[in-house]
Amino acid sequence: MYTERPARLAGAVVWTNTPAGPGGAPVLPDGCMDLLWHEGRLLVAGPDTRAYTPQGPAAPWSGIRFRPGTAPALLGVPAHELRDQRVELADLWSAGRVRRLRARVAAAAGPEAGLEQAALLLATEAGPPDPLLGRLVAALDAGRPVGVTADELGLGARQLHRRALAAFGYGPKTLARVLRLQRALVLARAGVPYADTAARAGYADQAHLARDVRQLTGRTLGVLLGGG
């Protein structure tokens, strides 16, 4: 069973998931990174460019999902170094720092509360988020072309690509595709017909939507929506 709620950290979401059986539902690309708690371990989920299928026996997971572009500053690691990976926080931080954070999470009322407290602490240490990254995400999520967005932000193509790699784990064109996929999923899950979903999400047509969903998730839209 999966549940989520908004976190006290702006734009973040706290979630829990206890799969009904081994593995679990695929985690789809969304432009985000997560700090995870699993059986006393702290891990980091890097940005995905394809669907990730959990492995292993059914066991509870908790996490805090950071809005796109914010986690690298909090964790102190460029996003592209974690692309399509799940890694132990101990591989990124000193043993002492991980031990202190693990103790903070374990001492909280529950893992979700502990992760939320940890995220607030990390955000305080990191300082205010880069407003340019927020503007970039907002523009691409609104369907603005990458070139036009770069001009509006006053960045050259190479500079934009370099900033995007560090913040999101991939270039702005891939980020735009991932955000468009998420827009389409929201519409399709709300019952919007596929052709209308494609048009409203920013695809050329329904066939374009179908290809992009398959390429990014390895599944058809019907399978993702539970229709077989």
From TrEMBL:
<dbReference type="GO" id="GO:0043565">
    <property type="term" value="F:sequence-specific DNA binding"/>
</dbReference>
<dbReference type="InterPro" id="IPR018060">
    <property type="entry name" value="HTH_AraC"/>
</dbReference>
<dbReference type="Pfam" id="PF12833">
    <property type="entry name" value="HTH_18"/>
</dbReference>
<keyword id="KW-0238">DNA-binding</keyword>
<dbReference type="GO" id="GO:0003700">
    <property type="term" value="F:DNA-binding transcription factor activity"/>
</dbReference>
<dbReference type="InterPro" id="IPR046532">
    <property type="entry name" value="DUF6597"/>
</dbReference>
<keyword id="KW-0805">Transcription regulation</keyword>
<keyword id="KW-0804">Transcription</keyword>
<protein>
    <submittedName>
        <fullName>AraC family transcriptional regulator</fullName>
    </submittedName>
</protein>
<dbReference type="InterPro" id="IPR050204">
    <property type="entry name" value="AraC_XylS_family_regulators"/>
</dbReference>
<feature type="domain" description="HTH araC/xylS-type">
    <location>
        <begin position="130"/>
        <end position="220"/>
    </location>
</feature>
<dbReference type="Pfam" id="PF20240">
    <property type="entry name" value="DUF6597"/>
</dbReference>
